[in-house]
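Here is one such tokenized protein:
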Amino acid sequence: MTLVQLRHLISLAQSGSFSKSAQALCLTQPALSRSIRALEDELGVPLFDRVGRRNELTSFGREVLDRARQLVVEADELRDSGRQMSEGQSGVVRIGMGSGPGAMLMTPLLMRMATRQPKVRVVVARGGTDLLTQALRARTLDALVVDARSLKPAADLEVGTLREMRGVFMCRRGHPLTRLRGGVTFEALRRYPIASTPLSDEVARTLIEAYGPEAHPTICVSLQCEEVPSLVEVVRQSDAVLLAIRAAARDLVELDMRPALNGVARFGLVTLRGRTEAPALSILRELMGALLRD
């Protein structure tokens, strides 16, 4: 039994004529007759009686017709759902975001989906790279956007859509450090609280190479959390100094460090190699290209 046969049954029940239904279905009359006969043979019961020049449903045929209509409607809905999902118009997408990309992408992604793809269910998880990677491997997340340098290399992970963004020290306007001439030394910076998200080993090495062992995050960072917006707000209202990507707080003042930090975050979209991709991820890639840049 196939959906095609059920569609033939529905058409014949509506028209009562093999010739009219065959014409409507773009079939020859013998082909339609074979289709209906094969359906009757499979069910073991006649579906139509010949009454004059019309073909009318038997009692069992009426029961089959009701169920056939339901099956065809559900099949059409399933096809439409598949089409919408393939176009990123429905379904579920579950994204894990590190603190840096989360600050840049989370609100725009949710706004985009709410206004242009309202039938897509979006779940955003925040956390450290290791925990998010575990969730990706457990298939509770479809993709991650994290600093690729904090990701442990693995054959089952695929990293794409890489975007580089500068990491800098920033403070509020009018901060005492902004009045220093000749740039800001790390020694001068250490007089104030330093705020940052959890930093990767690669960032720690960059800090130590530039400013010495005292620049290791476990030593110099006194305000740490995963939420960049919270850290930015603290820095706006205090003398704390923020270490983050420059684009995360364009209203803050970038400090002229001596020597320069030369730190770069490399944000990438991480998926499981060989896994079928959620269609809505194309929207995330588009936003990454538009927003993850200095």
